[in-house]
Amino acid sequence: MPLLSTGPSHNRKNLLPFVYLVPIFFLAFCGINQSAHAINLSVTEQEIITAVKEHSSEALDLLEKSVKINSGTMNEAGVRDVGQLFRIQFDQLGFSTDWVEMPPAMHRAGHLVAEREGKQGKRLLLIGHLDTVFEKDSPTPLWIRRENKIWGQGVIDMKGGNVVIVSALRALQKVGVLKDTRILVVLSGDEEQVGSPLHIARAALINAAKRSEVALAFESMMQDANGNDAGTVGRRAIGSFSLKVSGKQGHSSRIFGAGGDGAIYEAARILTKFREQLVEPGLTFNVGTILGGTEVVYDKQTKKGDVFGKFNVIPKVTVAEGDLRYLTHEQRDHTYARMNEIVAQHLHGTKADIHFHEIYPPMAPTPGNMKLLDIFSKASSDAGLGTINPISPSLRGAGDVQFVAPYVDSLDGLGTAGGGDHSPDEFMDLPSLERATIRAALMIFRLTR
């Protein structure tokens, strides 16, 4: 059961009562720098913001060091090196740290887990990842800075978010409010290409979730249609479907008659019905591969295949593979059921089977997640950084937070802002590093009181 309030929540704007306006105008007239957050923040919280700003250069230095280490998922040595860099930071913050090894056959470096034991406030789980999509032979430059923009491998996905975690905790430590908190940190080493079997690859993360009350994930901050920072309260599941259709091979002159309709027409019927009858918010399905003919060989691992067929022969086999994305397990279940119904309505002389596989579970936008966003938005607004509205789940891909969402209220997108992620143009807006750190530090502080 979620430990946060699960009643309806709304994004609230901080409206100062009229009685506060007179002193504010007076202070402004006198030339005193009096921002709105001086009223909405406690003295301790103002000290936290000051500590963040005083250590901004250290945060940037840590970011540069981590980005300059290639840590593509399959570069196990690079992932370990980045893990060691961050492990040192958590050791200095008084965390107990551990490197969780993966079986050699998985060809994954492992995960960094850091923990503080205490008795105060909620037990938090902070989530990041050490790997990037840029493998060791990637030609993408490691680090380029031009004024307030930084380009680099994984600079926002998600080494910037990892630095936000460390920098926020460092600010809390400096002010003296990190002690006696209960915080778990998991930085996985294979988020971009999860190892198999999945139950081993995500065991450390799921175990941490089961011991926590709130999960905060530090993937990049996204913007809404108006260019304002937005939080992630939901991410759609990622699954797959495999369709295999068979028909009666024969002379093409007998198509639609004694020879049946053939495997390709049956596959086309099925996929067209999917498109026509399964249109609803939050659900998408993409056919990524289709092969049809007299003979088909398809390798699911390499995603490559060979096909043989002739224009005057009714095709005997068609295979298709695609992905499924959905927002809840209820949506998944009724989609599976409807797809099976469509597949079962065979054309003459054909038959078909469909199979499903879930890779990432859904992170539904639950009331508990919305309540977390409310708290985050309030912290941001109180600091003078604006309110945070939710981003549509359809605009985000998959993330590690989805493995913990079934167990604990979760919020994602607390990291830095930028663009071009997963491309050679991946960049970070430098001011977002300090902005994200202030928000995170206040959020963690308030949850751990």
Describe the structure.
- The protein has 449 residues and is of the alpha+beta class.
- The protein folds into 2 domains: 18-235 and 363-447, Zn peptidases (Aminopeptidase, 3-Layer(aba) Sandwich), CATH 3.40.630; 237-360, Alpha-Beta Plaits (2-Layer Sandwich), CATH 3.30.70.360.
- It is 35% helix and 24% strand.
- It is built from 13 helices and 21 strands.
- It has helices at residues 21-29, 37-40, 43-54, 56-67, 76-92, 155-175, 198-201, 203-210, 262-277, 329-344, 367-382, 401-404, 431-447; strands at residues 96-100, 111-116, 120-129, 143-146, 149-152, 181-188, 214-217, 222-223, 229-231, 237-246, 250-251, 284-293, 295-299, 304-308, 313-314, 317-326, 351-360, 389-390, 409-411, 418-419, 427-429.
- A 6-stranded mixed β-sheet has the order 1-2-6-3-7-19, sandwiched between helices. It has a 4-stranded antiparallel β-sheet with strand order 4-5-21-20.
- The chain is elongated and about 85 Å long.
- The two termini are 21 Å apart.
- Residues 1-38 have low confidence and may be disordered.
